[in-house]
Design goal:
Number of domains: 1
CATH class: Alpha Beta
Shape: globular
Helix content: 40-55%
Strand content: 15-25%
CATH architecture: 3-Layer(aba) Sandwich
Radius of gyration: 19 Å
Strand order of the largest sheet: 3-2-1-4-5-6-10
Number of strands: 12
Structural class: alpha/beta
CATH superfamily: NAD(P)-binding Rossmann-like Domain
Distance between the termini: 53 Å
Bound molecules: nicotinamide-adenine-dinucleotide, 2'deoxy-thymidine-5'-diphospho-alpha-D-glucose
Length: 341
């Protein structure tokens, strides 16, 4: 199979490409990525030079980017992915997440190829009790979530109207190696290592379901191969935790791995102004993919956190390059402002 992966230089896309090349050594992967601030070719250094892999720097919004490329299926990871950035400026989110997805849908329609759209549990919005299933209404609350919900609606419309062979996956919060350090888990690790304050939004009791990135990648691959066209699949790991618990667990792990005093790390925890429109709890029911495709998350949470902390400790060069550049300016604007409240 010739597989087009969009956004393959980002956190989940890069992990997915490595999964595909190891699970299907006869496949050819074409990675189309614009290399926005979160796209990083160092995430793929293990597969540089592989005859089964081609990188194209391109924008999913550009209709001509794919003119001369042959493929049988598309897996779309390309997106603006960070909620806080969407609050500061939603425009790139609408452009890439909605217009870019539309462009890929047109490509899938013209080529009659399979299209797997990687979406998020955030499209359902927040829920106090119980969990959302695939038929729950979409109630997005952030501009990011609204842009992803819009793209999901477009996928649905192309299935109904043009009969394209498309599937949607909606996953919960991923963590693991190569995650850009604006997201909670890498941010906490790097700030702790640098002795910087750790910003906890609001009361720290917002709940997310955390899944190790490799489990998500396996699920996406299973849906690509065994999923039914027109269907949506929730991907979650039944591992809901309040943010403050995640932060404490990370700090305990760092203290253990580096033989440091826990108290010094706990002192870095700083409660700051809440995120605007902050969703209180995400909860999805993954029963459909578990029953129909026999998928199950396999990474134990404590083990996954420990591996992730170890990865960031051992890959200083990777994150130092990132935090010394454009990200620093963003960080100062975003967190400096929050920390001052
Ligand atoms: P990321 O920000 O790390 O990666 C996004 C990638 O898309 C980057 O490589 C970037 O360069 C690329 N990109 C951005 N705009 C592009 C464009 N116009 N054309 C081509 N490439 C472009 O994000 P991630 O966390 O890896 O998320 C990947 C996908 O998974 C997103 O669609 C996101 O909505 C979804 N998702 C993420 C999570 C999570 O917890 N991170 C959970 C569920 C779903
Ligand atoms: O649920 C899936 C989604 O998970 C994906 O669709 C998004 O692409 C991904 O970014 C993620 O969104 P969240 O907003 O849940 O992730 P984030 O890491 O930004 O924040 C996780 C929680 O931690 C959230 O409740 C906000 C809080 N937080 C975050 C940061 C960055 C803090 O308390 N402090 C912080 O500094």
């Amino acid at each position: 199979m010739r597989l087009l992966v969009t956004g393959g230089a980002g956190f989940i896309g890069a992990n997915y490409i490595k999964h595909v090349l190891s699970a299907h050594p006869d496949y050819h992967v074409i990675n189309l990525d614009k290399l926005s601030y979160s796209g990083n070719l160092e995430n793929l250094k293990e597969i540089y030079g592989s005859p089964n892999y081609t990188f194209i720097r391109g924008d999913i919004c550009d209709r001509t980017a794919l003119d001369s490329v042959e493929f049988d299926a598309i897996v779309n990871f390309a997106a603006e992915s960070h909620v806080d950035r969407s609050i500061l400026d939603a425009s790139p989110f609408l452009q890439t997440n909605i217009m870019g997805t539309h462009n890929l849908l047109e490509t899938a329609r013209q080529r009659d190829c399979i299209f797997l759209h990687v979406s998020t549990d955030e499209v359902y919005g927040s829920i106090e009790k119980g969990s959302f299933n695939e038929s729950s209404p979409l109630m997005p609350n952030s501009p990011y979530a609204a842009s992803k919900a819009s793209s999901d609606m477009l996928v649905r419309a192309y299935v109904e109207t043009h009969k394209i062979k498309a599937m949607i996956t909606r996953c919960s919060n991923n963590y693991g190696p190569y995650q850009f350090p604006e997201k909670l888990i890498p941010l906490v690790i790097l700030n702790a290592l640098a002795g910087k304050s750790i910003p906890v939004y609001g009361d720290g009791m917002n709940v997310r379901d955390w899944i190790y990135v490799e489990d998500h990648c396996r699920a996406v691959d299973l849906v690509l191969h065994n999923g039914t066209a027109g269907e949506v699949y929730n991907i979650g790991s039944r591992n809901e935790r309040p943010n403050i618990e995640i932060i404490r667990l990370l700090l305990l792990n760092i203290a253990e791995q580096l033989n440091m005093k826990e108290d010094a790390l706990f002192k870095l925890i700083t409660y700051v102004k809440d995120r605007e429109g902050h969703d209180r709890r995400y909860s999805i029911d993954p029963a459909k993919i578990e029953k129909q495709l026999e998928w199950k998350h396999i990474t134990d949470f404590n083990e996954g956190i420990s591996k992730t902390v170890d990865w960031y400790i051992s890959n200083k060069q990777w994150w130092e390059r990132i935090i010394s550049g454009e990200y620093t300016q963003y960080y100062d604007a975003q967190y400096g402002e929050r920390l001052n409240k």
